[in-house]
Amino acid sequence: MAVDRIPPKITPSYLENAALHYLERFAASSAGLRRVLARKIDRSLAHWGGERGEHMAAVDAVIAKLTGLGYLNDAAYAEMKTRALHRQGKATRVIRATLAAKGVDSELTDQAVDALADEHLHPDLAAAIRLAKKRRLGPFRLAEARAAFRAKDMAILARAGFDFDTVRQVIDADSSEVLDEILD
To answer: How buried is 166 (Cβ within 10 angstroms: 0-12 exposed, 13-18 middle, 19+ buried)?
Structure first.
């Protein structure tokens, strides 16, 4: 038998502690942390009543304090998230969409993607190769099955957000060694 817990009353110290506890476990943008704290406020207000606006002002103060202390840094978050998504084989358009959903400013997103472009001559090509390698597509597939799965492999990369030229370049590569040279 599950018992619903009564949410705590919202105080500035509670919000700060909740924010710190969240940041200990997860990397977050300031907009993401604001959403987490807003959900806590909404649960508390549903039980205890009160005005949301006065508590949201406390959330803004907590976020400003944590940003000043260096616990929240949207630029560092954007760069870290961009690198992680790129390593997973995500296209830059998917990376941009993910950061926008996380509430990262578009200027910070542009800076993070530009930093990625400084590391890789063709970031989308490198990400597509990583995804193809991970999923064993195109030249990473057994040679006898390559032709039969060409359209399926191309569709997988296209759904992952890569443009047609990039998809074709990866899937139609002569061998996996050629693609590995591009990554190095």
So the answer is: buried
Tens digits of per-residue pLDDT, 9-30?
999 999 999 999 999 999 999 9
CA dihedral sign of residues 175, 181, 182, 184: positive
Q: Which of 113, 96, 116, 94 is nearest to 104 (CA)?
A: 96
Alpha-carbon separation of residue 182 from 88, 96, 129 (angstroms): 17, 23, 9
* φ, ψ dihedrals at 62, nearest 5°: -65, -45
In this prediction, residue 50 has a pLDDT band, given cuts at 50, 70 and 90, of: confident
Alpha helices in the chain (DSSP H): 12-25, 30-48, 52-69, 74-87, 92-101, 106-119, 123-135, 150-159, 164-171, 176-183
Quick check: pTM over 0.85?
yes
Give the chain's largest Cα–Cα span.
67
For 69-81, write each residue's pLDDT tens digit: 999 999 999 999 9
Extract the tokens encoding 2. 């599950």
pLDDT digits (tens, 9 = 90+) for 126-144: 999 999 999 999 999 999 9
Q: The dihedral of CA 89, 95, 98, 104: what is its sign?
A: positive
Q: At what angle do helices 123-135 and 106-119 cross, to 10 degrees?
A: 80
